[in-house]
Amino acid sequence: MPREMTYPCYTCGSDQPHRQPRDDRERDIIRELTHARTPHAYVDDYWICGRTDYDCRNIRHAWRVKPFDPPRKMPEPD
Ligand SMILES: [Zn+2]
């Protein structure tokens, strides 16, 4: 599976490079976000906006531009 894909980003309003969750911390954050609706969500189906000229980090699903309402962004490590 490719590690980077171009997808439309809801927050940016344009096509942007996206990356998959890169470590267990990020996978756990997505699990927490999705747990109520889809307890067995496949976290690698979620993609994080990797726009380089703006700190977006909006999270989308491979098939849905806006899986969370309001949109959620991947927090930076503490
Ligand atoms: Zn974005």
Description:
Residues 1-24 are annotated as: Disordered. The chain has one domain (4-61). It has a four-stranded antiparallel β-sheet with strand order 1-2-3-4, with no helix packed on it. It has one helix spanning 24-34; strands spanning 4-9, 14-19, 46-49, 59-61. The model has no long low-confidence stretch (mean pLDDT 91). The N and C termini lie far apart (29 Å). The protein contains one helix and four strands. By secondary structure, it is of the alpha+beta class. The longest helix has 11 residues, at 24-34. β1 and β2 form a beta hairpin. Helices cover 14% and strands 24% of the residues. It is globular. The relative contact order is 0.25. The protein binds zinc ion. Zinc ion (ZN) binds at residues 9, 11-12, 16, 49, 51, 56, 58.
Short précis:
The chain has 78 residues and is an alpha+beta fold. It has one helix and four strands; from the N terminus they run E-E-H-E-E. The protein has one domain (4-61).
